[in-house]
Amino acid sequence: MINNVEMNDNIGGSGGALSVTMLSGFVSISVVNMTGNSAKGSGGAVFASDVGSLLLSNLNVSGNAATQDGGSVRWDLLWLLRTKTTANP
After folding, report:
1. Which secondary-structure segment (H or E) carries 60?
2. Domain contains 52
């Protein structure tokens, strides 16, 4: 569980701020600001692959970019609750 953090102005391969892969369980990310992140691959802010399930709640995801899929988030299975995504090319 990731709760109550700022993830801003990061650069990554896949997942500019956060990359979650190969977990069979449940991942929860809540009350997080993710702005100005970029990925050379997919998921400007968050990349999630081979994850049992991913819950994003109470997030502000803005101004993130990826050269491939998902300017803000790239996922396999995702639930969004009270999450705002804006200007994520």
Report:
1. strand 46-62
2. yes
CB burial string 7-33: b at 16+ within 10 A, e below: bbebebebbbbbbbeeeeeebebbebb
Domain that holds residue 72: 2-84
As a whole number of angstroms, the distance between CA 17 and CA 78 comes to 17
Q: Express each pLDDT in 29-57 by its tens digit.
A: 887 888 999 999 888 888 888 777 777 78
Cα 16 to chain centroid distance, Å, stands at 8
Residue 27 backbone class (left: φ over 0; alpha: ψ -120 to 50; beta: rest): beta
Chain centroid to Cα 25, Å, comes to 17
In a domain, 89, yes or no: no
State how many domains the chain has. 1
**CA atoms 4, 60, 10, 45: torsion sign:** positive
Asked if residue 28 belongs to a domain, the reply is yes
